[in-house]
Design a protein that fits this description.
By secondary structure, the chain is of the alpha+beta class. It is built from 13 helices and 15 strands. The strands form four sheets. The chain has a seven-stranded antiparallel β-sheet with strand order 3-2-1-14-13-12-11, sandwiched between helices. It has a four-stranded mixed β-sheet with strand order 5-8-4-6. A two-stranded parallel ribbon has the order 7-15. Strand 1 and strand 2 form a beta hairpin. The longest helix is centred in the C-terminal third of the chain and has 17 residues. The model has no long low-confidence stretch (mean pLDDT about 95).
């Protein structure tokens, strides 16, 4: 056994997911766990669509929601390494209309830079979506709407997780500095193509419809997002949608291939897709002891200790402490990854040289989702010998 993971504990991890599915917590899962690049668990469990009786398949395709941000971040890392963008690049340097139609109301918008966007410290409002659902797939319209928003905090002083605004802006900045016809084409050319990710795209192809896992939300309507807010994305995230914050579709195998490239410090098949120096900074804590307003709110509602934000440049980090967290308290502090609302997650533990990918069917309440992935991440970390 070259991966150095306890087979009994890995078996417990799989059985725990089976038990969760049987209990109705969620409908199904695709999970891949590896160490030193050697896969110890690759399991296909439960249903893609429980109500329809459709089983999960190894090649099932998920709308991965905010896990999408990892792909946009990676494109930003490439642009930084190529000198097309810098952490100090201001949004207005690339998108001058970001000032808005009333320059006198622009206030602090000229100080918002790429580092602020990557670390969720732009000071922009944490609106879930800047436009009505029917227009969210049009990146041009989304950017125009964002340009009319005001900054609500001094850039750099407040960490508020941004579901849409920051990554929409980064996607448009990328499109412009590369002179690309579309953000989607740029992602395919610079990232998905070189990685060989044939089942990953910003906007799932119509031809994939029989393999798509539908978004079924098991969350209360009284929450920050309602079930309707989630399930409508089945229609919004379509073949024509360009949504750099939430709009990609992928498989567990493709997310694993992406995560393995990150684990190998940006290398894939002998080619350096991202500079190691950039990844080193991206996986280093950049937000100090700032709390994350969104997850601090969830913690307060549940009577938990409020967690630090723990952001690198785009990556969420494990950090230290005993507060509830997606990656659990037993991964190493620089464990890094991304997650999508109530359903998807990956992380890389650089100290243990371990990769964890779990995509699930059935979107959970976000507080329950934190506890679910904390449990699964803890079991996975406990398998290390």
């Amino acid at each position: 056994m070259t991966h150095g993971l306890n087979a009994e504990t890995i078996g417990l991890l799989e059985q725990t997911i089976r038990n969760d599915i049987s209990a109705g917590d969620y409908d199904g899962a695709r999970i891949i766990v590896a160490r030193h690049g050697e896969v110890a668990l690759d399991a296909t469990l439960g249903w893609a669509d429980r109500a329809a009786g459709r089983a999960m398949e190894a090649d099932s395709i998920f709308r991965v929601l905010s896990l999408t941000k990892a792909f946009t971040n990676a494109l930003v890392y490439q642009a930084i390494g190529e000198g097309k963008l810098a952490l100090s690049t201001r949004v207005v340097d690339i998108i001058p209309e970001f000032y808005g139609s009333d320059r006198f109301r622009a206030g602090r918008k000229d100080r918002v830079n790429l580092a602020h966007l990557l670390t969720h410290r732009s000071g922009m409002p944490a609106t879930p979506e800047p436009l009505p659902n029917a227009r969210l797939g049009n990146l041009r319209d989304v950017i125009a709407a964002i340009c009319e928003l005001d900054v609500v905090h001094e850039p750099g002083t407040n960490l508020t997780y941004s579901p849409a605004v920051n990554h929409a802006l980064m996607g448009e900045m990328l499109r412009r500095v590369y002179g690309a016809d579309s953000f989607r084409d740029l992602a395919g050319k610079n990232l998905f193509g070189p990685l060989g990710l044939k089942d990953t795209r910003f906007g799932p192809l119509e031809d994939w419809k029989d393999r798509m896992v539908p978004l079924k939300a098991y969350i209360p309507d009284s929450g920050w997002l309602s079930a309707k807010d989630i399930e409508v994305l089945d229609d919004v995230i379509n073949e024509e949608a360009e949504m750099p914050w939430v709009g990609s579709a992928s498989t567990a195998a493709d997310v694993f291939a992406f995560a393995e490239m990150i684990r190998r410090k940006g290398a894939h098949n002998g080619r350096q897709l991202i500079a190691p120096a950039v990844l080193d900074a991206a996986t280093t804590l950049q937000t100090g002891d700032m709390t994350n307003d969104l997850y601090a709110m969830i913690a307060r509602m549940r009577g938990w200790e409020e967690p630090p934000g723990n952001f690198g440049l785009g990556f969420s980090l494990s950090g230290t402490g005993t507060h509830p967290s997606f990656f659990g308290p037993f991964t190493s502090p620089r464990t890094h990854g991304n997650y999508g609302a109530g359903s998807t997650l990956f992380w890389i533990d650089p100290e243990r040289d371990m990769t964890f990918v779990c995509l699930t069917a059935g979107v959970m309440d976000e507080g329950d989702n934190v506890l679910r992935f904390q449990k699964l991440s803890t079991i996975a970390a406990s398998a290390v010998l």
